[in-house]
Amino acid sequence: MTGIDDLALVDIDDTIREVHGYKKQGAGFGYSGVRGLNALLAIVSTGSAAPIIVSSRLRKGPTNSARGSKKFVSDTLATAKRLRSPTAKGMLLLRADSAYYVSAVIKAALSAGAMVSITARLNSLVKAGISTIPEAAWTPIKYTNAIFDDATGRWISDAEVAEIPFTAFGSKKKSEQIPGRLVVRRIPELNKTVAAGQGTLFDLFRFHAFFTTSTLNTVDADKTHRHHAIIENLNADMKASAMAHFPSGVFTANAAWLVLACITFNLTRAAGTLASPALAKSRHRDRSPQTHQRRRQSIHVGTTHHDAPTRKLALGRRLDDAIHQRRQPSRPRRHLTIQPNQAQPGTPVEHPGIEAHSLTAPKTPKEERAQIKNSSEADRWIQA
Question: Mean pLDDT throughout 254-281?
Fold first, then answer.
């Protein structure tokens, strides 16, 4: 991946894929309120490269998000470090939402040599820490409807950030406490239904806090943490493709399906990167109205956008050669004709323009098993 030695961003998140049928192993009602299976995914991205999936795990539907996350984080970070060169000194940052605000997860990341940026739950300790932030410490940031003031060199924005030193899990035993920083973003809480002349007596804010051990400044740390939402795009991509369903009733078969879905995603990403550098950071799909409008216009005017490359990709050449080596003449397809009542099984039926051997009776299951047994190992695998 381009730039992974300078900055490697690891994101973890779980998503629930709704399934149907009472015989679906592991299915249950999870935090989303739907009956499904829980897929835990981890991705790696950089400032100049789109994400790839480095770890996945299929779990029961009612599974708690943080279950098994300690081992999952350790394995994910070990894989991410193998993607980097041995001399890489850039930051390796783990990002996650509040479901993974667990001492075991953060300690596993720190033990693997990574820094963390994890959304903190607004418990009593976090709320007490936020209350100690002085008013002068808040800094406006680039946010929705923000305007940059050239005279002061600052943003005029409703959103502001600040930070304080913070010890996570301070109410637990000392071995589980982790020192770091608490970065807080606040946004005014506006009452859109307020009547005229009934304004608030004092300002109200909504707070979003996250715990981090990174060396980034307050504004950059907040901006980097907000980009954790990139994994939601991946979840949407997966659910719009192979994870649209889990086809089997057997849990282990669906787990294998998830692994193949992740491999397919990464191969598609690699093919897009090889096709054009512009696709290195693009998503697999674009469902915006503007894109669909362009596609409809291209159909009407007879033009095509984003033409596929005419040069065959390296992966395509390898697959093409392998397919040609295994390609064998296929048997003629059986024509869909109605046999007369007097025809006996196995007796060819004469029909104008159709070869007699194409209308022979199908082989029995015993004959098909004998043919598979006598074929080569590769052919048996393909037929299976």
Answer: 85
